[in-house]
Amino acid sequence: MSKRLSCPIGFNAQHSPMGAFMSFTCGHPGTKGGIGLQIGQPADQEVFVGLIDGDRYADAPLKSLPFYIGAVSKAAEAFTVEQAGPSEANVRPDALPFRLEEIERRYGWCTDSWHAGDMTFTVYTPFASIPDPKKSSARKMRDGLRPAVVARLVVDNTKGTRPKTGIFALNHSRPGPRMITDDLGRKSRVGFAFRREAGVAAEVFDLTSKKSPGPPPFGFMRWSATDGIRERYNPVHLLGSCPGVGFEVPPGRRYGMVLALGSYLESPVTTGLDGRYLYTRYYADLTDVLRSTLDKAGALIAAAEALDAKLDAAALSDDQRFMIAHATHSYYGSTQLLEVDRKPFWVVNEGEYCMMNTLDLAVDHVFWELDRNPWLVRNLLDSFVRRYSYTDEIKIYEAEAALSSHAMDHDPSQPPPPPDAAQLARPYGKKPGGRSFCHDMGAHNNFAPPGRSSYELANLASTFSYMTVEQLCNWTLTAACYLAKTRDTAWLRKNRKVVEDCLTSMVNRGGEVGFAQFDSTKTAGGQEITTYDSLDHSLAQTRNNVYMAVKSWATYHALALMFRDLGDRTTQQRCRKLAEKVAGVVAGQAVDGVLPAIFEKKNPGYASRILPAAEGCVYPLYFVKAGYQRQTLDQVFGTPAEKKMYEVLKEHTRRLLLDPQRRNAFADGGIKLSSTSNNSWMSKIAIFMHVARRVFHLDRDPGIVEVFRKADAAHVKWQAVGSAYWACSDQIVSGEGKASRYYPRIVTSALWME
Questions:
Q1: Nearest alpha carbon to residue 526 among 433, 461, 466
Q2: How large a percentage of the chain has pLDDT more than 70?
Q3: Partner of 528 at 20 to 30 A CA spacing, among 25, 220, 359, 443?
């Protein structure tokens, strides 16, 4: 098993299958969790995983892991309000919680385990490649898209002198629980469900010497877990809210109850486009899912443990392993593989916001997905081209763009203020912009109309404005990464016009310097923003931003590689020259060894220093490692301008990390992406640290090694304490998860395994 956690253990984790937008969430004391479907937060069930020192009817307390509110369900009161002390309402307290100091928690890449007293509860969530239905059998599709996870509750009574009882139950806030009466494949299996949507099936095994079948578990459903366990004559009441399963373990024996926790949503689940889950093509119903999961439980457990071992063997610290494991758990909780018009449609939802396929997340997820599912990256790229791209114009102001009249008095650590009346009314001319791509494809299972996102609005200067240049870069870079992995030149030839459009659009928006000089007319009186929408001027503004400059440089390199593969050497050379031009501009902005965040001296962002300046370097690094670049990384930075930019970015990064004033570090040692903002994003920190190590080789500097060691420890605390209820969170404000919670993007930390 993975190592025992040394950090605080009272945090939620998501446990999810691939592509089902489902999560079994638990781990945070005193709150609800359970099985959540298509939501951006923990579910609303009290989770009881417990042990009775005696048989099920013993006058002994149920000691449970503390994943519940603690109050007795009030559901019975709706039926007994006129009676005094009815037997159904007058139930005993549901459980006594194990104290955190009594619990040992182990947390791996694909397992999450709690040991308390004589019981151990483990959830197993292996991941693998998702098969392409065009190329795979129905059996492989069933295995790849099973909308369920496996858990196991083991009770060790080998040293006991009387029976012990283990139970698993979910107390629902909404009406609809039921016991499963359908065929689960064996008479030794018992289960319960919530309507037709989600359920649990159980089977008991004797693990004393070697695994062998055990007695059937017992089922119950009352208004509390303890009432259901102890009720001799009516353990199942169809009006109950708390269904569960349990098993008794005789003295001298060790039993394990294997649990299948699954979902099945059979109707179309989306609007705008009628999408149903692709798994419904291969599974008949919820019972089929649960039965299959119990049949395959042994293999699923073994796969999870093998992946745990792979992460444990990586040359990483415990803190780094924790971050990768935690991020992976949350990533799959946001994934959704639909079927639209009989074709697969891949969606990654944006955590608590549930925006669908946010493109500025997809470009960061691409490294993870290309290692496992290149066909899903192609699916995403095609969906943006087919439905979520647009053509615009750019705004040409006669004079230099002015900030709002109150901007200079605005707290520079906060997002830019909205445009004032004068700025909104400021006249501008128009020139062709070109193709770009929407921020997202909709939200909360509602596909947006073609050419429109759920997020972007006009007349704004920060959050919810347009990300036209950013998303143009993001689609282009994602496409190039896909080609680097697959060499799918047939796809490239099919999309030649799109690639040509992207180059034209980049040039139109870049002006004389080659990058992000003009805002889209879609912003009206506002201005474009970057993915760092909630940060201050240092990162929120697109125009003349060093982060966008280096990302644009990488985009030109990506375009050069694609035109090379298209056989267009002339355009390939043009793209290289554009990259060289951008590099020269960036290198020339350095002042005293560091780069301003915004290349506008009157802008508050000019005084800011940002670590994401070098983020764009991750893409050429990927191209080189994949063999797509056909050059070394030194050769990528081979021209005089690009070599100078490399040196400037490296020195900029080194100075910010070793700054005696620690302006890019929090008090706990965690990384501050911007010297002027207390809002830092873990997903982007992960990319930055990867670039610092693998592009600039700054991990050879003992001082920076120590900075990163302290940062890794702080980042674990951000998640395990500051974001404990919300599982994995991205936007951290002074150590606490404030936004972008329950989030997939932190899977960028898996880059550290390279």
A1: 461
A2: 94
A3: 443
